[in-house]
Amino acid sequence: MTDVRTTDVGIEFLERLLERSERNPDRSRPASAAPEYDRLSTAQQVSRFHDLMIAAERFGAVDVQWGKRDRGHLIERVRVRDPELLARQLGRPTAPATAQRVRQVLLPVAEAGEPWVASLLDEMTARWERGEAAYRLTAGQADAAKEFFTLLASISRQEARGLDARSFSHQATNDTKAFDRHASRLAAVLGVQIGQPGAAADVIWTHIGLERFSHPVHLRGPVAVEGAGGHLVDGRAKPFASIHPEMLLQLSVLERPTAILTIENYTSFNRQVREIEDDSLVVYTGGFPAAGVIELLAKVLATVPADVPFLHWGDVDGGGVRIFRYLEENLPRGPQPHLMTKELAEKSGQPADADPSLASIARSRSAIRELAEWLAYASDVRHLEQEALDPAPPARGVP
Fold first, then answer.
1. Over the range 39-74, which residues count as b (16 or more CB within 10 Å of their CB) and which as e?
2. pLDDT band at residue 176, thresholds of 50, 70 and 90?
3. pLDDT higher at 233 or 85
4. If you average pLDDT over residues 324-338, what whole number do you get?
5. Average pLDDT, the chain
6. Whether residue 184 sits in one domain with residue 141
7. Element housing 224 (H / E)
8. Which structural domain, as residue segments, surrounds residue 332?
9. Contact 19, 124 (CB under 8 A)
10. pTM for the full model?
11. 123/138 same-domain check
């Protein structure tokens, strides 16, 4: 009668050898290991283990090294001779074969998205070929991986914008809970993709335009939402008005604003609309602007003359620079920085470490590239939270 527990010890031993071999296929020496005889408590178990090793050696999968003299009856070491034969001996395909098979299944899904999605599949395939998990998915989880890449491809096509998570999930996969199952790995991948590895999930979701429920846009200035009975919302209300994104079809610009100013921080927005009396349009972005903010700004910028100044006021740090760049990349025309200068940061900011991840913005044609370069490479970097400054009229820029 075969001892199942003993058989498992021998098979587990060979499985570990194969995993070591697959994990480092370019190793100069074959993967090897010494048997753990303390797990074999009876002569029958030892004999069965030896039989499994001898059978694997005869099959050409491993080389068995026996002990010398008084240890000649014990196996000293087992080395992998041929990983493919060892996989066959164990009754499974090799990790590279499994990885390539899964890749062929996933490739059409990945190629339906932007090129970076297919590049991610190549990266994950390379890890699967070594028998590793990639973003906590193994090659044996093909269905889950297909769902993951379906969501990523859809996100890369901008199909998450303006939707809550459940609606987007159903639209992309026909399963309302698919997004929740993959949320943490989606955030990890997308954080790297947008240049903010490790960013909080809500920052990532805002960046891709995903909203649990769309938030009203806070603003003050010469705009209004018109209804059959007149003004439903007047943007000139004190201290400010709030317009829900669903009202944007009814939005109109009442008169030419002196400037358009977007503000990252809520405290600074409140101070601006309460302390500065002018005819500018001031819009609160709430950190990374949600889809409704972008939609409103795009409509206003398309309506007002091109010579109306457009400015953005945010923190002088990595996050503030990325928000500025996000506005540039997602609007018909980009803003100019307002109260976001190296000089103000040197005067009122706090010492901070350089942030090399801003290098791509520093190399771009962004209106904030010089500030990004200083924050990315300088030895005397300082960060400035916008709340440390008093508000100023957009036309003046610096108090």
1. ebeeeebbebbbebbeebbeeebbbbeeeeeeeeee
2. confident
3. 233
4. 94
5. 89
6. yes
7. strand 223-227
8. 217-388
9. no
10. 0.60
11. yes
